[in-house]
Structure formats: structure tokens, C-alpha cells
Design a protein that fits this description.
The protein has helices at 2-18, 20-45, 53-85, 88-92, 98-128, 139-163, 167-182, 191-198, 202-212, 220-251. With 257 residues, the chain is mainly α. The chain has one domain (2-251). Helix 1 (2-18) crosses helix 5 (98-128), helix 3 packs antiparallel against helix 5 (98-128) and helix 9 packs antiparallel against helix 10. It is globular.
């Protein structure tokens, strides 16, 4: 498994270096989109607008959305690209299982993308003048968010295996993810708090907003909920992907156009 991960990391590094201009363009688009929304909100609200820590929370949510969006599209996008280039079947007859191959590739690509996400965050903080806190305790809730994101990514990958083209569905999911990463479910109470804890990645995102935007201590009971949430969605995504893999192999339409 380590050999597979190192190979995928080398592949990702080569592609990243070869298409560096595209990566720089992605940083520019992400930061300019956020800053345009920020200027529009400031103009509409007038000179007396005071965001307070809400702007910090919005920045956290936007950067999380950028990160989760990359994770969600990594597996389904890889499946569609491999099918178009005619190399999808080679991945499924490798000594490793398909889920191991795609998970190793997604994690390797994510490690390379962390630098881009960090650059986007620093530029946004510099443009808005709002500097977030980065305690070491944010690693645990970030892992819960990534678990849920990879679960959704595998679920989208299962759709790509069966239906081949899922671009429109992926576009709809992008707006849903923006809602999940931006809405402050950690402030909900009563029955709505339970709903917020059931939404994918929402508990972990709420903890990150509390840590980075509001400088609150780590909420251990809420972290436990976030771990369960991320683990369940990850397990569900793996199960759906395994079912889709068995289905396309049984009907012999793995690489159909």
C-alpha cells in the first residue's frame, strides 16, 4: 500500500509541475471570486457595515468549501478522465483494489493541493485584513471533514462508474457543499442542532469555525460527534463504490462510452 501511495504521489507531483499555470489560475479564480463577493456585500450594506467574527467564519467556510470541492471531484473526475483516455480498465485489474487505488491517488493529490489551499487562505486574509487563528487542535476536526468529503467523493465516483457522465450532478452538489460549509450549524439549537449534526461534514466545519474564527477551545463532545459523522459517511461512500464496482464488472460495461 505504501508503494502504491508513493507512486501516486510521484505521478501527482509530475502532473502538478507540468500544469503549474493551471494551478496558479485556480488560486487567482478562487481568491478573486471571494473578494468580489466581499466587495459586493460591503457595497450593498454601506460604510457602516461591521462583520465582526462573522467574516472570519465566512472565510473559514469558503476555504473549507474550496478544499472539499477538490476532494469531492477528485475521484469522480479521475474516473471520467481515465475512461476518456482508455486506461480505466488498467486501474481495475491492478494488484490493488480500485478503492485503494483511487483513495491513494486522492490523498496524494490532496497533499500537493494543500499548498494551493494555503496560498488561497493567506491571500484572502491579506485582502480582507482578517487573520485567523491556527491552533494545533484544528487538525482533528479537519480530519473529520476530510473523512466526510472522501465519503461523498466515493459516492460520486460510484455514480460516475455507472452513468459515466455526472458533470451536472456534480455541479448541483457544489452549491450544496457551499451551504454545508458556510451555514453556522454550530449555533443551531434544539431539534435543528440534531439536524446539523447529521449533515455531512457540518459538525467538523462548525468546530473549525469556533477554533479559527472565534478562538474558542476544542469541544471534545462535539468532536466525538464529528468523528462519528465523518466515519459513517466515509463508510457509506466506500460501500456504494464497492457496490458500483461489482455492478459494472458483472454487466461488463466498466469502460463503456
Amino acid at each position: 500500500m505504501l508503494e502504491l501511495f508513493l507512486a501516486e504521489l510521484k505521478r501527482g507531483r509530475i502532473q502538478f509541475r507540468r500544469y503549474l499555470f493551471e494551478s496558479i489560475g485556480g488560486i487567482a479564480i478562487a481568491t478573486l471570486t471571494f473578494y468580489g463577493l466581499f466587495l459586493s456585500a460591503s457595497y450593498i450594506a454601506g460604510p457602516g457595515l461591521k462583520f465582526g467574527d462573522r467574516l472570519d467564519a465566512i472565510i473559514v467556510g469558503y476555504v473549507l468549501w474550496t478544499l472539499v470541492l477538490f476532494v469531492m471531484t477528485s475521484i469522480s473526475g479521475t474516473l471520467q478522465r481515465e475512461a476518456q483516455t482508455g486506461t480505466l480498465e488498467q486501474l481495475f485489474i491492478s494488484p490493488f483494489s480500485a478503492s485503494q487505488v483511487f483513495l491513494s491517488r486522492a490523498i496524494a493529490d490532496l497533499l500537493l493541493q494543500f499548498g494551493l489551499i494555503g496560498a488561497i487562505l493567506v491571500i484572502i486574509m491579506a485582502l480582507t485584513g482578517r487573520w485567523l487563528a491556527f491552533p494545533l487542535s484544528l487538525i482533528l476536526p479537519l480530519l473529520t471533514v476530510l473523512l466526510g468529503a472522501y465519503g461523498i467523493s466515493f459516492a460520486m465516483g460510484s455514480l460516475a462508474l455507472i452513468f459515466k457522465r455526472v458533470g451536472q450532478v456534480s455541479g448541483i452538489f457544489q452549491f450544496g457543499l457551499l451551504f454545508l460549509m458556510s451555514i453556522p450549524t454550530e449555533e443551531w439549537t434544539g431539534g435543528m442542532r440534531i439536524v446539523g449534526n447529521l449533515l455531512p461534514m457540518s459538525p467538523g466545519a462548525g468546530i473549525l469555525r469556533n477554533l479559527m474564527a472565534r478562538q474558542l477551545p476544542l469541544d471534545l463532545p462535539q468532536l466525538s460527534i464529528a468523528l462519528i459523522n465523518g466515519g459513517l459517511y466515509f463508510a457509506l461512500g466506500i460501500c456504494l463504490f464497492s457496490w458500483a464496482e461489482r455492478r459494472v464488472k458483472r454487466y461488463g460495461n466498466l469502460n463503456d462510452y
